[in-house]
Amino acid sequence: MRPSLPIAFCFVATQVLATQAAFAQSDRDILFQLSTIDALLAGVYQPLATLDEVLEHGDFGLGTFAGLDGELVLIDGEVYKAAADGTVRRMPGDTATPFISLTWFDADERLQPPPDQDYAAFKTWLEERLPSPNLTYAVRVDGQFAKVRYRSVPAQKPPYRPLKEVAKEQTYFDSENIAGTLIGFWCPSYVKGLNVPSFHLHFLSDDRKSAGHLLDFTLTEGEVTLDPTTGWTLELPMDKAFLRANLGADRAKALHAVEQGEQ
Ligand SMILES: [Zn+2]
To answer: Where is the signal peptide (predicted)?
Structure first.
């Protein structure tokens, strides 16, 4: 009966190795996030990391730039800035960001949305098809849009005002009959304070000349690809702007106003 102990030990060791392997396989399925959405709402627009530093964690995502200087779109490893003046340009690796969410995008699920959906109908349609409301999903939509409404925010100078105040000065853009991609995430309601519950998408046209934070659309036809993310890495900046920010307040209403473009 002597072998029983070694056999039991081997069993445990195998289980441990199997678990490690499972985590290793899901390394690409991690959402990396710098700072929190509530810190951004509170006006923490300071440079907290460079693109080179954060792009080690993914090739797909969204965010903003230091000083709230425009909307950030990350697609296929390339970062674009949608400025409030309507220009769109690729940004170099030494550009700084105060807030970004990104992941390595794998097209794990492909879905065909019904034609001519607006954003409200699209949200309902896609939420009914998510494998679970308790995971985070990277969402990519490639298609032809009859209409897209998006916005960008103007660069700020310190002392920074809360995002809800700055958003009153945002610029709205409308494009018609345009091919492009929606890039972003769907997050569960329990991420409130850290990220944006439900959908947060940015738009980038195929010709890379139009981009911004998505407000509404009519999607003539397209394809949705989903990448469920089963882990989060939250990087909390050791910057005094972040350390001193009041992150105890409930900013859900401010977030709703900012995300929907209400004034
Ligand atoms: Zn946005």
So the answer is: 1-24
- Residue 215, domain member (yes or no): yes
Give the Å distance between the CA of 34 and the centre of ligand 1: 14
Residue 228: cis peptide before it, omega within 30 degrees of 0: no
- Tokens read off for 38: 């509530």
Domain holding 122: CATH number?
3.30.1330.80
Q: Are 247 and 192 in contact (CB under 8 A)?
A: no
Which residue has 């659309």 as its token pair?
A: 217
* pLDDT tens-digit readout, 1-28: 444 444 334 344 444 444 554 554 567 9
Q: How many angstroms does the Cα of residue 86 sit away from the middle of ligand 1? A: 15
- Check pLDDT > 60 for residue 137: yes
**Look-up: residue for tokens 């310190």?**
158
194 CA from centroid of ligand 1 (Å): 14
Q: Which domain holds residue 30?
A: 26-260
Q: How many domains does the chain have?
A: 1
81 Cα: distance to centroid of ligand 1 (angstroms):
12
* Helix residue spans in 107-166 (DSSP H): 119-127, 163-166
